[in-house]
Specification:
Strand content of chain B: under 5%
Number of helices of chain B: 12
CATH superfamily of chain B: MetI-like
Strand content of chain C: under 5%
Helix content of chain B: over 70%
Largest sheet of chain B: none
Largest sheet of chain C: 2 strands, antiparallel
Oligomer: heterotrimer
CATH superfamily of chain C: MetI-like
Distance between the termini of chain C: 38 Å
Radius of gyration of chain C: 24 Å
Number of helices of chain C: 12
Largest interface: B-C, 91 and 102 residues
Shape of chain C: globular
Helix content of chain C: over 70%
Order of helices and strands of chain B: HHHHHHHHHHHH
Distance between the termini of chain B: 19 Å
Bound molecules: adenosine-5'-diphosphate, magnesium ion
CATH topology of chain C: MetI-like fold
CATH class of chain B: Mainly Alpha
Chains: A alpha+beta (about 350), B mainly alpha (about 270), C mainly alpha (about 290)
Strand order of the largest sheet of chain C: 1-2
Structural class of chain B: mainly alpha
Order of helices and strands of chain C: HEEHHHHHHHHHHH
């Protein structure tokens, strides 16, 4: 399969819209990488530069080591699935799927075989005579996928392909598409603003912000040990607490939050500096007040079926705690509780997290 | 109809509306009625109807010639106008470039320039170039004045179109030309066809500019009709006009089928 | 930066056929006409190769031409006023109709736009004559004793031009009417405004841009109309366009005709540009 290398890629639209500032990314053969970020951060522009629809203002795109930065899109052998699916409305499903094969001037027998293969891969057999207008949203998306799989692209580019599907179908497609991608071993870039989608499908996630990659790593890495405060806050939920450094040695730091003293297992900041600490709500556990590392009073609690979300007032501010619903006795609103955590789960801004 | 806070129509409104519609339709209805008269002068057909004034057209060779000239002129001008308007519309709709507004203004300018002025300009131009009496020259300037109509409808079709389908075609291996021919063109064809029909009608109807440059060999139907009416209004002018009314109505039905008449008349996107 | 040059070349490549057509067949002829308007004209020998301001001086010093332009402006103004008075209420009535009737009446009212103006004018000349439909019905209703002189009169020309131009006013007003938000009117009503006050203080001001742009179209097209004033007004009731025609095809004084044509073009462009600027200035803050 193919490797894709993106070097210092940038795009400035006239007069001075810096849609993409600088992107560096090495994608291994068969790897699935997601570009995850909020709307307007430059994901689509990046993808379109890779696809050849938008000419970069600077930087390079290399496919298997060959510079394709300014190559026309029809010479790239890339399969693009658009958010709008971009099916050809005046062609049937089969005609849509065979379009790319006709462009490659394959013999008719081979075209038929590949069309049939592609349609059965996305489980659309029998619908080949329908027009896109006669299909459901989910079916249209499958046609768009079949259309690019048929050409056996060297790279698969997906721009928010699931965002027009309802939640249940989206979940199914995540699994199905990922399965196909793994089976075919196609190098893939997925653009999405959906964290769950990026987490469930990707080998690696590139968290984008303001036209750059803020964080790059496996889903677990970017979630558990991100290197920036931005990434920590962008993914999942988080608690932020400001603490004052009391003392530290090589292996740990003592900090004061409110009336309590806590410890982090790393060296953080200088003496009496203010340090911002971060911890995810699901890494906090509730206990009796005596057993907790700190105490607080339950302000509100929300029942979400599989979990409970607690808002707990401590003497330094409010903490959010997420607890799996085990049907056991749950703390009530107004109750005093103890809160504990594994010290390794707490991150701090001046330590491992760079300022965003 | 969406309520726009304008209330509903009362009796007064309906009376006004009836008179208004009558005012609009009356002159056309009168022509059609008069064309069926069996008298030798302009009169209503109530005391005797006939088709004699339709047969009489066949005996007026200058009208028959003019009719065919108008038809060929309209076909040629509409085709040429569409051929230049489609790429221009793609440029305007798909690219941002310096001079885009100027290009648009230039191509729409025949709508603003009085046709008398155009007539004068072409008369002078043809005489300088030695093109007086040339059908081809007349067709070229007709194409020019109908370009705005072809452009507007084509532009409306392209602007309403998502660009992704063309991009998808490109990345599936289609060249710019193939992507145009197999994806964009089929999708904007209704708009292009509507623009072509509207251009044909506008060329066919044009009189003010053409009256300046028409020679005996290039006299169009409206110009011939104009000269005839300027001298006398006889029932033949009515039967010719009736045919033009009915013909236009036929083309309106086609326009409605192809693009929707509201798009043509209201310039809706 | 290969692609940058490509993407700046592409649009010009695409528009080059149309630009060539327009440069060759519009810009050049207009320039030739402008030059022609400065040529000397000799009654015996026709257009000369020498140049003069004489044609313009003749127009600017002769009260005949002032009257001509004034008459044309008054005619166009009258048509514009009539189009507002008839077209605005009719458009409002149309907008209140159900979609079915709306469709039918739209085609009836706007359809004539596509029918040759000579044909429409012919219909009117049949109706406007001394023995025509209008005089007959007015006489039989006892409203007039003597038949009215409508043919070859300014009244007749204005009536027919109003008929020709009304669709443009309806289109312009309809377009703005589509943007109206019904809730604004509802809000006015709930604040205690009666239906007339609501119309006058809330709806009409929102329609003004449409009425104004419709008026510009109607005014400029009326001032440039040729067939209707020529056929209904006859040879003696001259407006700017018909006098240009006479200079070119009867007097054969092309330079003078060209000068009048240039002045007409300048006047039309000035009206369009001037009113566009005015409309933009006045409405920009409110409607964007
Ligand atoms: N053709 C364009 N011209 C000007 N600005 C653009 C263009 N395309 C995108 N942008 C701007 O570039 C930024 C990034 O856009 P995009 O890549 O579409 O973001 P995303 O896909 O992450 O939502 C946005 O601010 C957008 O407005
Ligand atoms: Mg996007």
């Amino acid at each position: 399969m193919s490797t894709l290398t993106i070097r210092n890629l940038a795009k400035t639209y006239p007069p001075n819209v810096r849609a993409v500032k600088s992107i560096d990314l090495d994608i291994k053969s068969g790897e699935f990488v997601s570009l995850l970020g909020s709307s307007g951060c430059g994901k689509t522009t990046t993808l379109q530069m890779v696809a050849g629809f938008v000419a970069p203002s600077a930087g390079q795109v290399l496919l298997d080591g060959k510079d394709i930065t300014y190559l026309d899109p029809d010479k790239r052998d890339m399969g693009v699935v658009f958010q709008s699916y971009a099916l050809f409305p005046h062609m049937t499903v089969a005609q849509n799927v065979r379009f790319g094969l006709e462009m490659r001037r394959l013999p008719e027998a081979q075209i038929r075989e590949r069309v049939a293969d592609a349609l059965s891969m996305v489980r659309l057999d029998g619908l080949d005579r329908r027009y896109p207008a006669e299909l459901s949203g989910g079916q249209r998306q499958r046609v768009a996928i079949a259309r690019v799989l048929a050409i056996r692209p060297r790279v698969l580019l997906l721009d928010e392909p699931m965002s027009n599907l309802d939640a249940k179908l989206r979940g199914e497609m995540h699994v199905e598409l990922r399965g196909l991608q793994k089976r075919l071993g196609i190098t893939t870039i997925l653009v999405t603003h959906d964290q769950v989608e990026a987490m469930t499908m990707s080998d690696r996630i590139a968290v984008m912000a303001n036209g750059t990659i803020a964080e790059l790593g496996t889903p677990q890495e970017v979630y558990d040990i991100p290197s920036t405060e931005f990434a920590f806050n962008f993914l999942g939920q988080s608690n932020t607490v400001t603490a004052k450094v009391l003392s530290h040695d090589e292996a740990s730091t003592q900090l004061r939050v409110g009336s309590s003293t806590i410890r982090t297992p790393r060296r953080n900041g200088g003496l009496s500096d203010d340090v911002r600490l971060f911890i995810r709500p699901e890494r906090l556990t509730l206990s009796s007040p005596e057993a907790g590392m700190i105490t607080g009073r339950v302000a509100t609690r929300l029942f979400l079926g599989n979990t409970w979300t607690y808002e707990i007032d401590c003497d330094f501010g409010r903490l959010r705690v997420i607890k799996v619903n085990t049907r056991g006795g749950q703390p009530q609103e107004g109750e005093l509780v103890g809160i504990s955590w594994n010290e390794a789960d707490m991150q701090s801004a001046s330590g491992e997290l760079a300022d965003a | 109809m969406k309520d726009r806070g304008l209330g509903s129509n009362g009796v007064g409104s309906l009376i006004f509306h009836t008179l208004f519609t009558l005012f609009i339709v009356a002159p056309l209805a009168v022509i059609i009625l008069v064309s069926f008269s069996d008298k030798g002068y302009i009169s209503m057909p109530f005391e005797g109807a006939s088709l004699r004034w339709y047969w009489a057209i066949l005996d007026a060779p200058e009208l028959m010639n003019a009719f065919w000239i108008s038809i060929w002129l309209g076909l040629g001008a509409a085709t040429l106008a569409s051929l230049v308007a489609v790429p221009a519309a793609i440029a305007i709709a798909r690219y941002r470039f310096a001079g885009r507004d100027g290009l648009m203004a230039l191509l729409l300018s025949p709508l603003m320039i009085p046709h008398v002025v155009l007539g004068v300009a072409f008369l002078r131009f043809f005489s300088v170039m030695g093109w007086t009496g040339s059908f081809l020259a007349l067709m070229l300037v007709h194409a020019l004045i109908v370009v705005p109509f072809a452009l507007r409808l084509t532009l409306g079709a392209i602007i309403g179109l998502n660009r992704d389908a063309e991009l998808a075609a490109r990345s599936l291996g289609a060249s710019r030309w193939i992507a145009f021919r197999r994806i964009l063109l089929p999708l904007i064809l209704p708009g292009v066809a509507g623009g072509w029909v509207l251009s044909f009608i506008q060329s066919f109807d044009e009189v003010t500019m053409t009256v300046f440059v028409a020679t005996p060999g290039t006299t169009t139907l409206p110009v011939a009709l104009y000269h005839r009416v300027a001298m006398l209004t006889d029932p033949v002018t009515a039967s010719v006009s009736a045919i033009m009314i009915v013909g236009t109505m036929g083309l309106m039905v086609i326009l409605d089928r192809v693009v929707g008449i509201d798009k043509v008349l209201l310039g809706k996107k | 930066m290969r692609d940058t040059s490509k993407s700046t070349r592409q649009p010009w490549l695409l528009s080059s056929p149309s630009v060539a057509l327009f440069l060759g067949l519009l810009v050049v002829p207009l320039a030739l006409t402008a030059i022609l308007s400065f040529n000397v004209f000799d009654a015996m020998m026709g257009t000369q190769d020498s140049y003069t301001f004489g044609n313009y001086l003749e127009i600017l010093t002769d009260s005949y031409y002032y009257e001509l332009f004034l008459r044309t402006a008054l005619m166009a103004g009258g048509v514009t006023v009539l189009c507002i008075l008839l077209g605005v209420p009719e458009t409002i009535i149309l907008s209140r109709m159900g979609p079915r009737y709306q469709g039918i009446f739209f085609v009836m009212i706007l359809g004539p736009l596509l029918i040759s103006v000579v044909v429409r004018t012919l219909g009117w000349s049949i109706m406007l004559g001394r023995e025509g439909l209008i005089n007959q019905s007015l006489t039989s209703l006892g409203l007039i004793g003597e038949p009215l002189q409508l043919m070859y009169s300014m009244t007749g020309v204005v009536i027919v031009l109003t008929h020709v131009m009304l669709p443009f006013m309806v289109i312009a007003v309809w377009t703005t009417l589509q943007k109206l938000d019904a809730q604004v009117a509802d809000a006015a009503r709930s604040l205690g405004a009666g239906s007339w006050t609501t119309f006058r203080r809330v709806i009409l001001p929102q329609l003004l841009p449409g009425i104004l742009s419709g008026s510009i179209i109607v005014f400029t097209l009326s001032a440039s109309a040729f067939a209707t004033p020529a056929l209904i007004g006859g040879r003696r009731l001259k407006v700017v366009t018909t006098s240009i025609y006479d200079e070119f095809l009867h007097s054969m004084n092309w330079p003078l005709g060209a000068a009048i044509a240039v002045l007409l073009l300048i006047a039309i462009v000035a009206v369009v540009m001037g009113s566009n600027r005015y409309i933009e200035r006045k409405f920009k803050q409110v409607f964007t």
